Amino acid sequence: MKSASTYRAVQAVSKGKLELTEKPLVDPPAGHVRIRVEACGVCHSDSATVEGILPIAWPRVPGHEAVGRIEVIGSGVEGWKVGQRVGVGFLGGSCGYCDYCRDGDLVNCTNQGYTGVQQDGGYAEMMIAKASGLIAVPDDLSSVDAAPLLCAGLKYARRMGFEVVAIDRGGGDRAELSKKLGAHHYIDSSSTDVAKALQALGGAQMVLATASGGKAVAAALGGLRRGGVVISLGATDEPIELSAFDLLFRQLGVDGALTGTSKAGDATLRFSAMSEVAAMIETMPLEKAAEAYAKMMSGKARFRMVLTMT
After folding, report:
1. Which domains occur in the chain, in start order?
2. Each residue of 3-25: pLDDT tens digit?
3. Spatial CB neighbours of 42, under 8 Å, sequence gap ≥ 6
4. Fewer C-beta within 10 Å: the chain N or C terminus?
5. Alpha helix stretches (DSSP H) within 69-167
6. Cα(256)–Cα(258) distance, rounded to whole angstroms?
7. Exposure class string for 103-124: b at 16+ Cβ within 10 A, else e
């Protein structure tokens, strides 16, 4: 039987290997809280920890889509209370005093650790989190539904009033699914020139490129209307080929985005609750984290794996 002085966690111990363990229960340091985790999403970015893509000091508990209740509050923490449900995303919490923080750019805080990378994440019954990185979870949004929304965005564009085009490889089921998820149009990139198809619809003002490849980003550039931008979200080392002609004469832009601030997370979850936006999820108990991770990595998850701690 598990001791009250320990908690269960699944940690990466070497490249590609996850194991269930028990860790000692500790109190949060100043500026931090201890959270009893209720749910944690399994994200492809967790591979940075599990596969050692980023410099990792193993063992390390992955997971940056964690939702739970504050159990203990460390000294110096204000504005949060015991029992409050909160989320912890990829950003571990800004320092408030570096040049970027003082300029209001909390995402790029130079003293900010990444959850599940430099500090243990949410594949666990408990976790310690910096108070400045906490996200408030609305009462009418369940922990299981809230968890993947701390990182993955979906269905929002249509709810916000945009005309939405989904681009993917293959037709049939993918086209039908895209409509179910809110797209007005579907483009099969394996059989259609993406740029021409987007231009036929009037040109895209913005393209969110979630594919992990520079070629996919480059292909979308030709489909932008004048002044449009491609925002690359997929992490890849594949270069993106750009035409200076397009940048100059069509005023196109390419940008990247890591993740949002904790305040943006608050707004996202509130909007999700108001507009009834939720991911299509599969749940697995914590002890099956390795199985959930493998299913996610294989592309067989439909569509977000979420670990539950009860």
Report:
1. 6-151+259-308 (3.90.180.10), 156-256 (3.40.50.720)
2. 589 999 999 999 999 999 999 99
3. 63, 65, 289, 292, 293, 296, 301, 304, 305, 306, 307
4. N
5. 99-102, 143-149, 156-159
6. 7
7. eeebbebeebebbbbebbbbbb
Q: Exposure string (b/e) for 152-188, b if CB count within 10 Å is 16 or more?
A: bbbbbbeeeeeebbbbbeeeeeebebbeebbbebbbb
Contact 225, 200 (CB under 8 A): no
Q: Half-sphere exposure of residue 127, counting CA atoms within 13 Å on the CB side?
A: 35
Report the sign of the C-alpha dihedral through residues 169, 171, 177, 183, in that order. positive
Tokens coding 169: 């490889």
The residues, ordered by sequence, that sit 6+ positions from 217 with a Cβ below 8 Å of its Cβ are: 209, 211, 230, 232, 240, 254
Chain centroid to Cα 207, Å, comes to: 18
- C-alpha 20/C-alpha 10 separation (Å) is 4
How far apart are alpha carbons 141 and 294 in whole angstroms?
A: 27
Q: Is 86 left (phi over 0), alpha (psi -120 to 50) or beta?
A: beta
Q: pLDDT digits over 71-124, tens only?
A: 999 999 999 999 999 999 999 999 999 999 999 999 999 999 999 999 999 999
Identity of the residue numbered 93: G
Q: What share of the chain is helix, strand, coil (3-state, %, to 5)?
A: 25, 30, 45
Classify burial at 207, counting beta carbons within 10 Å of its beta carbon; exposed 0-12, middle 13-18, buried 19 or more: buried
Mean pLDDT over 250-271 rounds to: 93
DSSP H stretches of helix in 79-155: 99-102, 143-149
Mean pLDDT in the chain? Answer: 93
DSSP letter at 277?
Answer: -
The average pLDDT across 222-235 equals 90
Q: Which two tokens stand for residue 136?
A: 């408030």
Is-contact 88 113, C-beta < 8 A?
A: no
